[in-house]
Design a protein that fits this description.
Length: 254
């Protein structure tokens, strides 16, 4: 078993650096300053962190071994729903860019047909460079589109991917989990079950016994609202669940 923590800031920085390298390679040198300023603004733009994380997640899934299972511990429900909607949004965005590139290439080809040869009948070198740049840009966009398409297909394939919603047995988390379940189904994603975590014992003092009595109706409501899903109950454990030994503590309850 191996663990990987994806740092949003470092992942975003690496994503921006990769985009900068690609743009500086493809675009004219005199635009390098504009590219740098634009990417610095984009670094803090809404959705940049999520897009970078999605790219990293796609990379992890694509590079897994044939017998490896990838378990992703995501953010709370609202962030998870937005993250999982990104593959389709990013694919649609990339499709739009590709259509724009196609129109640009057709227009550029028409212009090159008018002025792409010199008086001696030779192809203009600058026209050749623009054509090569256009082909490379399209190749970059095609690769990006294919990656998001593969990721979306993987996430929506119930034979390969299942979502397990982990929650606390409290009113608000239960309601959020029911809403997340509905959002996942709407997105074509398979929910395999729910895990109620850190449940209070009934026999460990009056405080925890009172919490235990409050938790049971919430679990009953969860089962009533989502009757087709198993609900795994994990009690409050003494230590923090971290690392391989911590995961081992959960084994008897799963």
């Amino acid at each position: 078993m191996r663990g990987l923590e994806i740092d949003p800031r470092r992942t975003t920085d690496a994503h921006i650096d990769a985009v900068r390298h690609t743009l500086q390679r493809l675009m004219p040198e005199h635009l390098s300053g504009e590219i740098r300023r634009h990417l610095e603004l984009a670094r803090e733009a809404p959705g940049t962190h999520e897009a970078a994380l999605l790219e990293r997640l796609a990379e992890v899934i694509e590079n897994r071994g044939p017998d490896e299972l990838v378990v992703v511990d995501t953010a709370p429900s609202g962030h998870t729903a937005r993250l999982l909607a990104l593959p389709e949004l990013m694919q649609a965005w990339t499709d739009g860019l590709l259509r724009s590139r196609h129109r640009s290439e057709r227009f550029g080809a028409a212009l090159r047909g008018l002025g792409g040869v010199d008086t001696a009948g030779r192809q203009n070198p600058s026209a050749d460079r623009r054509a090569r740049r256009d082909r490379e840009i399209r190749a970059v966009l095609d690769r990006r589109r294919e990656r998001f398409c593969r990721l979306r297909t993987t996430l929506q394939d119930a034979r390969r991917t299942a979502f397990v919603i982990v929650l606390a047995a409290e009113r608000v988390p239960v309601q959020e989990s029911i809403e997340l379940h509905d959002e996942l189904l709407t997105s074509g994603l398979h929910v395999a079950g729910l895990v109620a975590n850190k449940l209070s014992p009934a026999d460990a003092g009056p405080l925890l016994a009172a919490r235990h009595r409050q938790e049971r109706p919430q679990l009953d409501q969860l089962r009533a609202r989502l009757p087709g899903l198993p609900v795994v109950e994990i009690p409050l454990l003494a230590g923090e669940v971290a690392g391989a030994s911590g995961v081992g503590l959960l084994t008897p309850y799963l």
